[in-house]
Amino acid sequence: MEKKTTPVDVMLHDLKKQQIEENRKLLCPIINAIVLCGRLNIPLRGHRYDSQYYLSDDVNPGNFIEILKYGVTCTGQSLEEYFKSTPKNITYKSKTTQNEIIDICDDLITQKITNEIREAKFFSILADEASDCGNVEQLSIVVQFVDKKHHIREEFLGFVPCKTSVSGEALANTFQEFLGDRNLSIDDCRGQGYDGAGNKAGRISGVAA
């Protein structure tokens, strides 16, 4: 009786599927550590973040590595063993990967909040601007709305750099563009809250106008 052989394309598909599952397992503790840092509002990286300090007990490489080390230890595995089980080019512990995961979390959280705002239909805008360390005006935008449980919510949606100017017209255009990118209509805005500056609260040429 002739033995059946598995087609090459099926073998490659199964191998790729297995690699995806293994990579997901490797990512879980890393994502959990990053999310925990975000929930506690603590920085991820310390003063010494070079890879040579990851396994050191004498130097603090940062909260992310320490939390990851603790989480891996709870599974009965050391961080060194955990890193050895992964290829050197896909350890997912670099600051670039951390930032990518943070951006993904940001997108998911923002999407969830904007969906709730759309369900509520009407909302109010609270905003203020301040200069960052690069002397660029950053506009912080908070939206207030009543959710489906009838709770009054205030949710921060993001910082927007004021690239052109901070005039009333420029800020108004920034608002509309920001809301439009999140599928929120300015027509559903029922209130505005500012710090009283003329370029925002002015009744003639301010954003409120």
TrEMBL record:
<dbReference type="Pfam" id="PF14291">
    <property type="entry name" value="DUF4371"/>
</dbReference>
<protein>
    <recommendedName>
        <fullName>DUF4371 domain-containing protein</fullName>
    </recommendedName>
</protein>
<feature type="domain" description="DUF4371">
    <location>
        <begin position="41"/>
        <end position="206"/>
    </location>
</feature>
<dbReference type="InterPro" id="IPR025398">
    <property type="entry name" value="DUF4371"/>
</dbReference>
